[in-house]
Amino acid sequence: MDHARINQPPEVLLSRYEIEQRVAELGAKISLDYRGRVPHMVGVLKGAWVFMADLIRHMEVDVTVDFLGISSYGSGTQSSGEVKITKDLDVSILDRDVLIIEDILDTGRTLKYLEDVLLAHKPRSLRVAALLDKRSRRIVPVRADYVGFEIADVFVVGYGLDFDQKYRQLPDIHVLRLAPTL
Ligand code: IMP
Ligand code: MG
């Protein structure tokens, strides 16, 4: 990816303050729903780790954590739905209350794949928390139980989300507009 193709500086869609407030609300809601349980939070690498790091600090019940590393084929702005597991779970999820932590739901293909993989390991329950949801782009009918923000059909970066592995470090979430390929 050539920097010269990005024709304008990223504009802020969601500020760090809005994100912080919403993540706190999600943590409170999820904690209430899991009262008396110990949810096993499975973060999807790499996009979700910043969100997860903030979310667990708003959890008011004990939690355990693990990570699943995946990479979608291709490095453009479209996910192919073909997913490669680059890091498997460390511990068994049998009979656990598993909560998948995702950065963003787009077509839904990635989440569908992940849900199928995890359900095969017989968790007691399986829910999904996604920071962002581009609902209008859905191709596969999946849904998150907890959503931070529903957003329009734009490509976003920052707060863990990347374009070609870049921009994950930005504290806010920005819209990335790409110059048309000539
Ligand atoms: P899906 O399989 O089409 O739902 O795509 C989900 C994955 O594509 C996410 O976990 C992200 O890694 C990536 N993705 C989709 N939209 C965006 C975006 O706007 N910015 C960054 N990554 C995105
Ligand atoms: Mg991702």
Please, could you describe this protein's structure?
The protein has 182 residues and is α/β, with parallel strands linked by helices. It has one domain (3-175): Rossmann fold (3-Layer(aba) Sandwich). 20% of the residues lie in helices and 29% in strands. The protein has 3 helices and 9 strands. It has helices at 16-33, 49-56, 109-119, and strands at residues 11-14, 40-45, 64-72, 83-87, 97-105, 125-133, 146-150, 156-157, 173-175. The strands form 2 sheets. Strands 4-3-2-5-6-7 form a 6-stranded mixed sheet, with helices on both faces. Strands 1-9-8 form a 3-stranded antiparallel sheet. Helix 2 links the parallel strand 2 and strand 3. The chain is globular. It starts with 10 loop residues before the first strand and ends in a 7-residue tail after the last strand.
Strand content: 25-35%
**Overall mean pLDDT score?**
91
Integer tally of domains:
1
Specify the helix fraction band.
10-25%
Apparent shape: globular
| SS-based class | alpha/beta
Count of DSSP E strands?
Answer: 9
- The poorly predicted ranges are 4-9
Compressed to H and E, one letter per element, the order equals: EHEHEEEHEEEE
Count of DSSP H/I helices: 3
Strand order in the largest sheet: 4-3-2-5-6-7
Q: Provide the list of bound ligands, each named once.
A: inosinic acid, magnesium ion
- CATH-defined architecture: 3-Layer(aba) Sandwich
Determine Rg (CA atoms, Å). Answer: 16 Å
CATH class category: Alpha Beta
State the end-to-end distance: 15 Å
- What is the fold named in CATH at topology level? Rossmann fold
**Biggest sheet, open or closed, and with what strands and sense?**
6 strands, mixed
